[in-house]
Amino acid sequence: EVQLLESGGALVQPGGSLRLSCAASGFTFSNYDMSWVRQAPGKGLEWVSAISTSGHSTYYADSMRGRFTISRDNSKNTLYLHMDSLRAEDTAIYYCATKDSTNYYYHWGQGTLVTVSS
Amino acid sequence: EVVLTQSPATLSLSPGERATLSCRASQSVSGSLAWFQQKPGQAPRLLIYDASNRATGIPARFSGSGSGTDFTLTISSLKPEDFAVYYCQQRSNWPYTFGQGTKLEIK
After folding, report:
1. pLDDT digits (tens, 9 = 90+) for A66-102
2. How high is the pLDDT of residue B8?
3. N or C: less crowded end of chain A, CB within 10 Å?
4. Which residue, among A2, A47, A96, would best test binding to B if mutated, counting the most B CBs under 10 Å from its CB?
5. Chain B contact probe: residue of A4, A39, A45, A59 with most B CBs at under 10 A
């Protein structure tokens, strides 16, 4: 069974940094692209970032490029999202997700909450 | 980036009725569009992929259609468990994007 377990969410001050992790199990992690999607409280889904199987290709939403860095450690079956210069509008639940054979986001974690506030 | 605009924002219907949700893209995404369902406190669930294919385990009352810039999700006869928020998502162009969602509520 595919499992994605996010961690690292916390209360952080504006301008601060945070690193999220997503531990994967139940599938061959190194064979799948991985992504982050977020959801602000009471709002819709917002695609954040994606990374290729090797980590050599990365993609970002326009509003996060330059502040967020996605990475992965295939030896640890773990996906990361490093976030700098955090703003109040970055407050959200952050989900990690991966595709199945449909090539769409079939598997999702339960999310980790990031709150940016002074 | 591709902007996906969903309509209506809220749809009020009764069980047994037919629901029609729309998603319009700011530029062609070909057939590379999915629909998700999300219930409170839960992660999204993939319903439809490549515009018209049901994901594993999705009931036949859910169907998708469209290509290019105009897409539709139809629920033929609503069941109580179908009342939720629905999102479209494109994977034709980077960055991937989601629509803002349609809330399907009980009338």
Report:
1. 999 999 999 999 999 999 999 999 999 999 999 988 8
2. 97
3. N
4. A47
5. A45
